[in-house]
Amino acid sequence: MKENTNRKSFLITFLNNVKMFVFMMIFILTFIKIFGQENTLIIVSIYVGLVMFPACDTGMTKKAMMAVIAFCYIGSTIMAQLNTISPWIALPFNLVFVFLVMAATSEPTYLKMNVIMLLPFVFNQSVPVGFNGFKARMAVTVIGTLIVIVCTYIQWTKNGYGKEGSRTLIEQIRKGLKHANTALRMTLGVSFALILSTILKSQKPLWITIVVVSLTQFTSQEMVSRIKYRLLGTILGSIFFVITFNYILPIEWSIAVVFLFNFIGAFLDEYKYKQFINTVSAINASLIIYNTDRAILGRFVGLFIGILIVCLLYLLEKLIVAKFRKTVNE
Fold first, then answer.
1. DSSP character at residue 287
2. How many CB atoms neighbour CB 285 within 10 A?
3. Residue 315 CB neighbour total at 10 angstroms
4. Is 165 a residue whose pLDDT tops 70?
5. What is the reported pTM?
6. CA–CA gap between residue 209 and residue 268 (Å, rounded)
7. Distance CA 49, CA 47 (A)
């Protein structure tokens, strides 16, 4: 009986994941067809929000949550366009924007909502478009944001989230400011990564910024854990890619393998497993502009720069806190 129940449970989970994967592919490919491949990443970030936010009780009122979604998505597209004018002009705006996003999304910490809300920011920055392309990008951002807001509102109403007693936007920001140290580290880290990518003329700035966003955590334990698993996933993913497509399969098969891995990834929630899949997918996607060796080298360079930024800012925070405590005690 127990074995049959387990099989039935597995089958239900499998079919649900298949359904979600098919929906994801249809959603993303449809939007790419309408708005162009240059908007692929912002479309992906919209899909992530569409999957996550309706199912999460963030403790905010519905009005506050809708305002946060609109601010993060639409604001991200506007901030990215400022960067195309001049990264130095955009720098102070980026600093303020990232800090506000962190303040509004750091609570509850276990949801990691801040990482999801920063995805459209770093994704937009990684694939800049000219002012002619900005119309399409703003259009997909606004339409996608409205879809996320409507679906979130409907599901929250159905689940009873955001009722009386939930936090207003001001209360949410005040609560989030308890993590001001993490917000500052994220703000400085992402902004510095963008400037550094510009100075280095990196064709893949996302490989630095996404590392900073992913590894900047509320606790040192989680930061160290993520560094370990991201490094391990990058090493194993790179080795797999080289062995598989240099000695076993022709490179033309890579898209099928990536597709299969992304399907398997729909069944995996743990950070450590996803890093292997992300590495294989990222290397394959970068072959448009790099050969395999340069793609892998670039991936590691971006990883190490991101880790260095995160660790230095964490150590700087600890030194400042220790200095402050010493001054107070004196």
1. T
2. 16
3. 10
4. yes
5. 0.90
6. 24
7. 5
